[in-house]
Write a structure and sequence with these properties.
Low-confidence stretches: 44-51
Number of strands: 5
Mean pLDDT: 78
Strand order of the largest sheet: 2-1-3-4-5
Shape: elongated
Distance between the termini: 33 Å
Structural class: alpha/beta
Number of domains: 2
Order of helices and strands: HHEHEHEEHEHHHHHHHHH
Radius of gyration: 24 Å
Number of helices: 14
Length: 353
């Protein structure tokens, strides 16, 4: 029991040391503050996203013919049939699909046959969906004249919080990749790490303390961003899910940052590698929906799963949200990175070299 208390005490002292050093480090302060101020700015002015491929749900008797027509003639639309119209509306409100069409075959007028619910998260995509769905329905029925279909917002989206998942993803990635990799490398350059290792401190304790330090900074920055963008108005279940995802994301990118530091021989090398790989890691998450190719490529990057999970939790409404898949992949990336760190520590003489 005394050994466990001693281990915890050492880890806490190392975290305290990292906090004091980070307050003196301008780079660390800038990494935290720049995305924070940027998120505040974007919460005030709003944002526009890249046009994406759309997933549309549909329910109603004899809807199969419309589904087949859309699948055969429109590549940017993926159709999903629902037996229950209420489930389709809930999925549209939760962001699981972009639009839901309730097909009412027994109505006389064409415009009354369709009750359409759109994901209103982004105004640009909202109007693109309106135009495209109107166009494909008119073509399906062979109608040339203008028709006013019934479009409804599936759920009210808070514009201020719609950009929050982007800035959280950016911040979590930057803390792990740039701050943590630079912090450990700096201690190697200054021989601080060597001095710690000749004392009672173990290499594993340093890794744990750096990871917890990254998590602490991530939670503080995320809480501030959430407060600025009204995220604390969501349900307790969503806040708890957001905390779990943010923790998982922090572990992934702090693990990657520690890997970079362990496999480089200087602070400048670690920062250079972090800077070079930062954009390729973060970019796929933000442009995944541009095309089927980018969707497939993005699945190889942890930032994609972090962004998707935060988007589902913080932006969309309703209780029907599922982040299980994203959490599994984030956990898998974290396990892989820390296993690499573990095996590196077992075969190397010292992490201070």
């Amino acid at each position: 029991m005394s050994d466990l208390k001693s281990e915890i005490k050492i880890v806490l002292l190392l975290i305290k040391k990292d906090i004091k050093e980070s307050l003196k480090n301008r780079t660390a302060v800038m990494i935290i503050m720049l995305p924070l101020f940027a998120s505040l700015m974007f919460s005030l002015v709003g944002s526009q996203e890249i046009v994406r491929n759309f997933e549309i749900g549909i329910s109603g008797n004899s809807a199969e013919e419309l589904v087949s027509y859309i699948d055969n003639n429109f590549k940017n639309f993926s159709m999903q049939e629902y037996q229950n119209s209420e489930r389709g509306r809930v999925d549209a409100a939760s962001g699981n699909i972009d639009a839901f069409i309730e097909y009412r075959r027994n109505r006389e007028k064409i415009e009354d046959k369709y009750n359409i619910f759109l994901d209103s998260r982004d105004s640009v995509n909202y109007f693109i969906l309106r135009e495209n769905i109107s166009m494909l329905l008119k073509r399906f029925h062979g109608i040339e004249e203008e028709i006013s279909f019934s479009f409804n917002s599936a759920a009210e989206i808070d514009t201020a919080s719609s950009i929050l998942p982007v800035w959280l993803t950016v911040t979590i990635t930057m803390i792990g990749l740039m701050l943590i990799s630079g912090s450990l490398s700096e201690e190697k350059d200054n021989n601080t790490l060597a001095a710690l290792l000749v004392s009672r401190v173990k290499a594993s304790q340093i890794i744990v303390s750096k990871s917890l330090f990254a998590l602490l900074l991530t939670i503080i920055a995320s809480s501030l961003m959430g407060a600025l963008n009204g995220a604390f108005s969501i349900s307790l279940a969503r806040l708890s899910a957001a905390f779990i995802i943010i923790t998982a994301g922090s572990m992934v990118f702090s693990g990657l940052g520690l890997m970079i530091s362990l496999f480089t021989d200087s602070q400048s090398s670690a920062r250079s590698i972090s800077t070079v790989i930062y954009f390729p890691i973060i970019f796929p998450a933000l442009v995944a929906d541009v095309s089927p190719l980018t969707q497939r490529l993005a699945r190889f990057f942890p930032s994609y799963y972090l962004y998707r999970a935060l988007d589902k939790i913080l932006v969309y409404s309703g209780s029907n949200f599922s982040i299980f898949l994203e959490l599994i992949f984030l956990a898998l990336f974290a396990v892989i990175f820390y296993f690499i760190i573990y095996f590196h520590l077992r075969r190397t003489d010292s992490i201070a070299e």
